């Protein structure tokens, strides 16, 4: 079990930054309260999750799902760009990613 | 002519095949009903009248030409607005996708089209299927046809309400933790979550990939079976799709209705009753068990201790997978793009502003919770432990199915509650309502909710669970139970619904 120290607004701000969601102080404080409350309830899963129990990632696991390597239908560039907020010359147009040039 | 909206899907199919009425007449009757009641009910985000009438006209032309048509040809259907329909807006109930028009079809939509079923429209849901009330939709809440002050359940609340209100005979929903079964219970309809992987999810907007499943909503067990048969089957576009052949669900329902429940062992789940369950719900459930016993069923009790941890595991696994799946809504390739109100405009600040503006509070809460549960130092204790609980739940189910043919419980601890009754101040209180439905999603097994009488004038859902790949058993036992309840005077439940 990780120690159950309360999650602070600062920690939520870090999570929000990782999740790329802009939030104001009020939202951060409310979420800190929610997270503490929810995690306080659900952390008991660790009580029964002993080393001898294997984890299940998918309820009905399939192995090595393959298909024949044949040419099929795909979206055209025009279709793929049809919902783009901005596009240019057949490409998605996005805001600047790296720092100043 | 009789009111065509009141007939079952199978009766409509039979009537059209016999030439009693056309698909155009059937489709128009449902569009008229939608026009009359949906402004109040708000079960639909988009009504696709032209698409529906075009399919109906095509069916009528083919039938007139003597063409052999699939069983549900001409019977109208709706799809939850989480299911991609090319050329028709698909919003997921979110501002993020308010203007999204998919360039391709989900396999399940392609299948209802191939079955010549007119699409009446796209139904309302909690944003990205996250919720149990359909209040968390960017397009307004859906009302429960039984009482406009009450929630229709969720997240497939629009799907269930549209079927309960006779706006559509059949509807396609999705169920990640109970999102087909719980709204079916709250509206007096039949809802099924198939075995994980048995219905394609290609083109269905993902929420929790290890649990999401598409399923039918209908007014009778046999109608649900017929739609399930259209939806199921292997799809090479979905890597979790099971390769097995699809059983004849309609035949299973017919056999169950004819044979009754003699010799069927129903295992009452010890953990899904008692404290916190409404007395009226438990009374209706007990009465349904008595009706089943009177028709020859054997009632046994089964103990599944791991279910005490199922809700906790779900509320770790679900947000974890949500945080990963919803990372794709970044304002770059499709969906909303918002710019920050101040500061520099970079890809990163645009992403943060887009996700702040596009997602509602519940979605944000789950993304942040999942981001935390998956973060370094906590992964093993939270996500890792939850996945182990999943193994324990599966083991408990395997043991219980040795003692019973189907496991049974009420579908939800309560009937439909009033809007705002479960306040946003306590998300855990709302999450508790999913206690009976979540275990099937954790274990991948199929489940059905069917109406079992009333409590204080509101429908009560009776849940049946079967082992993985035994979906046909749900229809066999479900149809037997439906018949038993009707002979006991506890059905059809929708006959008691008030006029809208």
From TrEMBL, chain A:
Gene3D superfamilies (alphabetical) = Glu-tRNAGln amidotransferase C subunit, N-terminal domain (1.10.20.60)
Keyword hit for Transferase = yes
Keyword Nucleotide-binding listed? The answer is: yes
Task: Say which enzyme class the record assigns.
Answer: ligase
Name the Enzyme Commission number(s) assigned to this protein: 6.3.5.-
Q: What Gene Ontology terms describe what this protein does at the molecular function level?
A: ATP binding; glutaminyl-tRNA synthase (glutamine-hydrolyzing) activity; transferase activity
Catalyzes what? Answer: L-glutamyl-tRNA(Gln) + L-glutamine + ATP + H2O = L-glutaminyl-tRNA(Gln) + L-glutamate + ADP + phosphate + H(+); L-aspartyl-tRNA(Asn) + L-glutamine + ATP + H2O = L-asparaginyl-tRNA(Asn) + L-glutamate + ADP + phosphate + 2 H(+)
- Pfam family name, one: GatC
UniProt keywords (A-Z) are: ATP-binding, Ligase, Nucleotide-binding, Protein biosynthesis, Transferase
InterPro entries, sorted: Asp/Glu-ADT_sf_sub_c, GatC
User: What's a single GO BP term from this record?
Assistant: glutaminyl-tRNAGln biosynthesis via transamidation
Tell me, how does this one assemble?
A: Heterotrimer of A, B and C subunits.
PANTHER family to which the protein is assigned, alphabetical: GLUTAMYL-TRNA(GLN) AMIDOTRANSFERASE SUBUNIT C, MITOCHONDRIAL
User: What protein family is recorded?
Assistant: Belongs to the GatC family.
What does the record give as the function of this protein? Allows the formation of correctly charged Asn-tRNA(Asn) or Gln-tRNA(Gln) through the transamidation of misacylated Asp-tRNA(Asn) or Glu-tRNA(Gln) in organisms which lack either or both of asparaginyl-tRNA or glutaminyl-tRNA synthetases. The reaction takes place in the presence of glutamine and ATP through an activated phospho-Asp-tRNA(Asn) or phospho-Glu-tRNA(Gln).
State the HAMAP family in the record: GatC (MF_00122)
> What's the protein here called?
Aspartyl/glutamyl-tRNA(Asn/Gln) amidotransferase subunit C
Q: Which organism is it from?
A: Brevibacterium rongguiense
Automatic annotation (TrEMBL), chain B:
What does the record give as the reaction this protein catalyses?
A: L-glutamyl-tRNA(Gln) + L-glutamine + ATP + H2O = L-glutaminyl-tRNA(Gln) + L-glutamate + ADP + phosphate + H(+)
Domain Amidase per the UniProt entry, residue ranges: 25-474
GO MF, one term, reads:
transferase activity
Q: Which Gene Ontology terms describe the biological processes this protein takes part in? A: translation
Its cellular-component GO annotations read: glutamyl-tRNA(Gln) amidotransferase complex
Q: Give, as one word, the top-level EC class.
A: ligase
Keywords, ordered alphabetically:
ATP-binding, Ligase, Nucleotide-binding, Protein biosynthesis, Transferase
Q: Gene3D superfamilies of this UniProt entry?
A: Amidase signature (AS) domain
Q: What is its EC number?
A: 6.3.5.7
Q: Where is the active site?
A: 80, 155, 179
Cited InterPro entries: Amidase, Amidase_CS, Amidase_dom, AS_sf, GatA
Q: Which domain of life is it from?
A: Bacteria
> Which PANTHER family does this UniProt record tie to the protein?
GLUTAMYL-TRNA(GLN) AMIDOTRANSFERASE SUBUNIT A, TRANSAMIDASE
Question: Record's HAMAP family?
Answer: GatA
Described by its record, this protein's role is as follows:
Allows the formation of correctly charged Gln-tRNA(Gln) through the transamidation of misacylated Glu-tRNA(Gln) in organisms which lack glutaminyl-tRNA synthetase. The reaction takes place in the presence of glutamine and ATP through an activated gamma-phospho-Glu-tRNA(Gln).
- Give the similarity note: Belongs to the amidase family. GatA subfamily.
**Subunit architecture:** Heterotrimer of A, B and C subunits.
Name of the protein = Glutamyl-tRNA(Gln) amidotransferase subunit A
Which gene is this protein's source?
gatA
